[in-house]
Amino acid sequence: MRILLSNDDGIGAEGIRVLARELAAIGEVYVVAPDRQRSAAGHGITLHKPLFLEEHDFGPGIHAYGLSGTPADCVKFGVTELMKDVKPDLVVSGINAGSNLGNDVMYSGTVSAAIEGSIQGIPAIAVSQCGSEPFDYQGAAEFTKRLIGEVLQNGIEPDTILNVNYPPLLPREVQGVRITSIGKRRYENHYDKRTNPRGVSYYWLAGPLKKLEQEPDADIRAVREGFISVSPVHFDFTHRRMIDTLKTWSLH
Amino acid sequence: MRILLSNDDGIGAEGIRVLARELAAIGEVYVVAPDRQRSAAGHGITLHKPLFLEEHDFGPGIHAYGLSGTPADCVKFGVTELMKDVKPDLVVSGINAGSNLGNDVMYSGTVSAAIEGSIQGIPAIAVSQCGSEPFDYQGAAEFTKRLIGEVLQNGIEPDTILNVNYPPLLPREVQGVRITSIGKRRYENHYDKRTNPRGVSYYWLAGPLKKLEQEPDADIRAVREGFISVSPVHFDFTHRRMIDTLKTWSLH
After folding, report:
1. Pick from A126, A135, A76: which is nearest to A105 by CA?
2. Which of A9, B54, B74, B138 is most buried, by the most CB atoms less than 10 A from its CB?
3. Contacting B residues, span 99-118, partner chain A, CB-CB under 8 Å
4. Model confidence at B91, in pLDDT bands (50, 70, 90)?
């Protein structure tokens, strides 16, 4: 089995190394990850700049490369160039340092790397370790290995990926696994305005999470209650019901 | 009425200027657009760098700014910082130079700027002019004005934007308006490998569109047949049906 591994924290992140080593036990691992931090990259791809590739040492049985692009670039490049003769059986993105829950999947480079795998016709999983520094990735890495077994056996629906969030707990403290929906997550965003030593103003995006009521099966609630959350995330953009409404508008 | 306008081609693009002037006739226009070309930016936002803002002259009745961020950053900044005391009634993204059809909406900075408007709770439209250089934006700009009237009267469903693609035709050649679904679009991607004068290899993303059968109501087909395409695009990520399947997997 061949696994293509990517992330959005960059090739130097600990989470991808832990996962690469864990997965090397069950298959041949190819790592193509951004050459630097690309969190919140969304599903950007690089059209107007060329991409540079650099080999990295991840230990035996692992082919590892840093690419000067986004997470989606890395998976596209991995599938269509680096592994064009040895198509991967699976794309895995992560383990991300921090959660990718609720509407944040929209902005998530971790999720977008997995989605690019699915666009390329390959079953794909995104994995995130919730909590904050210092992260312990071992539990999430082991769960990912178990999930991969089920994915290979059962498959994933078209245009769909599995989004895994592991709670900030030791494996023995974890309450179990919950299959979840994508919860509601909104921020009270504002911008911190500052002035640099040369008198030029600049802005930092800031603002806390809003406290929102969650559905009983929401991913956010599952992690909060100590469960591993597994959400089927699809990208079916057409709002079928609204098509009928729009047909009644005066646009002609 | 206050309209926040953005795009992904950058503040210097012709499409956003034509649209800003057209919309200034029906409301107060605020432009916040990337300070440079940000096509295919996806829904990236900028967390690890500060944002710089620069005022531009778009003529009377238009407040215009270039921001050193992505399209989604521009709309987030426009709504939560620049217009925090005068909330916009509408977010419009475009007019993009080139189509945003089918699955390309996933990568589209134009669409993502509109989606950020919707996330901020404001009705939002993405507008693209299909075809190639030289673009004529006037027909699309006039149609957008008409569509805005309907949007303000009828509203848009939550977590949904309208994605407009104007065919590469003169207004009198246009066949009409079609309410459409998001079609299938895939590329036969490959990477062109080159070597720079210093002997370093680099790669360019390349590859033509695959020829795919389209649904009768697909956006791609509508534009091909000379219609203006209006698609309701939503971002409801949970694959409800697959939740039941996943519950039968051995993950516990």
Report:
1. A126
2. B74
3. 103, 105-107, 109, 112, 115
4. very high
